[in-house]
Design goal:
Length: 300
């Protein structure tokens, strides 16, 4: 509970700073989901804040985070989200949501056409997604994570039990507009009660190579190949660059044990490249298998 209060304080600080500079931040999960689906906000814990901003305001939003002492860490599954850290505090800055296929500018327009409000820490009102977009996001979140990750599944199962059918119909319409049906149907199919909703919506589960890898496990390098092969043309150089040389903060956190400084960082990169090179045949095989599987009709 104390951790949640600390995160609430960080979220309030970030929202206040962004709005002071003319940004329009949207809170995606955390306190929003806790208040929406749980009897007591403390029943649903969270350790970071997910904040979405307009793509056109990304650079300025990043400048604001830097001014608050945050430094960039690694990107999410796509370049539409990135972790920012300040000690133990973490903000995930989004311009879209993993699982959405349309351009971030289009996603922002559709997701923010209808929004709601939420209260963080009992005092600060923030803008949040409307319920259909929230329901969609919960399904996308389950699709993003392995089945063993419990919290996204519990969130979605609670929503399936509590949210009316018309909200799921609106979420399905939004998924189609956002080119998010593969992740939407996959997330629903993974949890209790999800297939019944898919049946009522008359939706057949579909997949993409990334979703196949997420569902069945991806060896080192396979997800990177999928990210590069599916990247938008404008993002391809940056996608290749981050695959070759991830951010220093990420390398130090994920590949610990090397001495501080440039020499230690270089050693971590060498260790990572060696691992990826040795695993390349398996990664290529898994990537190709995922592409074949995604092209086949799915049978629930």
């Amino acid at each position: 509970m104390l951790e949640t209060l600390r995160v609430d304080a960080v979220i309030r600080e970030v929202f206040d700073a962004l709005r002071t500079q003319g940004m329009r931040p949207i809170l995606l999960k955390g306190p929003v989901i806790a208040a929406w689906l749980y009897e007591q906000p403390g029943d649903r814990l969270y350790v970071d804040g997910d904040v979405m901003v307009a793509p056109a305001q990304l650079a300025e939003s990043e400048r604001v985070l830097r001014s608050l002492g945050f430094t960039p860490d690694h990107f999410g599954l796509t370049r539409d989200s990135r972790e920012w850290r300040r000690g133990t505090a973490q903000i995930d800055l989004h311009t879209s949501i993993t699982g959405i296929g349309v351009e971030p500018e289009r996603a922002w327009k559709l997701l923010t056409a209808d929004t709601s409000s939420a209260v963080v820490g009992g005092t600060t009102a923030v803008e949040a997604l409307a319920e259909p977009a929230r329901a969609l996001h919960l399904a996308l979140h389950v699709a993003q994570h392995a089945s063993a990750v419990a919290k996204p599944r519990e969130d979605l199962e609670r929503a399936l039990a509590m949210v009316p059918q018309e909200t799921w119909e609106a979420a399905a319409t939004l998924a189609e507009q956002l080119d998010a049906q593969p992740a939407f149907t996959t997330g629903l199919r993974r949890v209790d009660g999800g297939q019944a909703v898919l049946d009522r919506l008359r939706l057949r589960p579909v997949a993409t190579p990334m979703i196949v890898l997420l569902e069945h496990g991806a060896p080192p390098g396979a997800m990177g190949l999928t990210q590069i092969s599916s990247a938008r043309v404008r993002d391809l150089p940056a996608e290749i660059a981050r695959a070759i040389v991830p951010p220093a903060a990420y390398m130090r956190r994920v590949w610990p044990g090397h001495r501080p400084g440039a020499a230690g960082l270089a050693a971590a990169h060498v260790q990572r490249w060696l691992r990826l090179t040795l695993g390349l045949p398996v990664a290529l095989s898994s990537w190709r298998a995922a592409r074949r599987s995604a092209a086949e009709p799915h049978r629930p």
